[in-house]
Amino acid sequence: MKSHKIAVIAGDGIGPEVISEGVKVLKAVSKLNPEINFEFTDFPWGCEYYVKTGKMIADDGMETLKKFDAIYLGAVGYPGVPDHISLWGLLLKIRKGFDQYINLRPVKLLNGAECPLKNVDRSQIDMVVIRENSEGEYAGAGDWLFKGKPEEVVLQTGVFSRKGCERVIRYAYELARKEGKTLTSISKANALNYSMVFWDEVFEEIGKEYPDVKTYSYLVDAACMFFVKQPERFQIVVTSNLFGDIVTDLGAAIAGGLGLAAGANLNPERTFPSMFEPVHGSAPDIAGQGKANPLAAIWSVSQMLDFFGYENWGKAVLDAIEKVMVEKKFLTPDMGGTSKTNEVGDAVVKALEEIA
Ligand code: ATP
Ligand code: MG
Hints:
Radius of gyration: 20 Å
Number of strands: 12
Low-confidence stretches: none
Order of helices and strands: EHEHHEHEEEEHEHEHEHEEHHH
Helix content: 40-55%
Mean pLDDT: 96
Bound molecules: adenosine-5'-triphosphate, magnesium ion
Shape: globular
Number of helices: 11
Largest sheet: 10 strands, mixed
Structural class: alpha/beta
């Protein structure tokens, strides 16, 4: 029997509500297949912890987390705690500290999901966006000169290393080859005349090793337009940290909204644990009311199962989510239903038992 150690950081707001449903689904998988076992350990880190201790994560937190196979994260954010504190104090600390340089976000329109686009073939909204997750525009490099003076200047520097670009682009080519799909790079070399020129060069260079992969290259502005007008153009997409942040929110919007958007932060070498999380935040407006949609958090469980090599179970969980959405009997208010968070989680478990 294989056992996987999972660190659960449920976090703030609706985080704990949606994460407990994801844990429920993982336990169901383990029950349906006794060969797979998960050991869960809860950690109280996040903004509430910050309010009490002045820290987002314990001093030895990263050392502790290192021993796990995966991190399952809810959401961090709390009224009164500035976003940059929660972001840099926990989320980016883990992403950077554990070199999770791949941010993998499925943009797939499931049956039963609402799509705001008209006149598109629903089955063609099916892509995977790979966002560079360790450097680029979010490297945190810059300067603030002559603060408060008339000549004040603020610099925010993008950092694009050869190693950083090559590894994410190579990952994307490998995935496109494995799945027999096209690969699209999104950049902006006409305006960002250093970083994106380099990005495009690396994309082309590495492409020489993958003559079997059909590639496209879009400027980010044009890509945004086509995400809306012709999303069928995209299959596997690779892009920088900032552009990936933006286009994946657009992707979430065309594939059913925040309640359905999942994201994996991967360290493909498995030197460090990878982290799985719903894309949405802590949503304090609906926290504690059982209204939170757990499907994004459950979809990230499907990604975790894929990453552990249980692709058939990852697919079964996704099929179970889709079944619940098509049946429309158990849905949270954001999807037009009247069910509570835990009832939706129970429905997914039931659907999974039927599928498996
Ligand atoms: P944070 O500061 O942590 O990002 P936020 O209020 O910005 O929190 P978001 O996740 O960005 O929260 O979501 C914006 C809004 O979308 C929320 O206020 C909430 O109404 C809705 N929302 C987000 N996630 C969910 C969900 N899982 N289920 C239902 N509604 C959601
Ligand atoms: Mg937010």
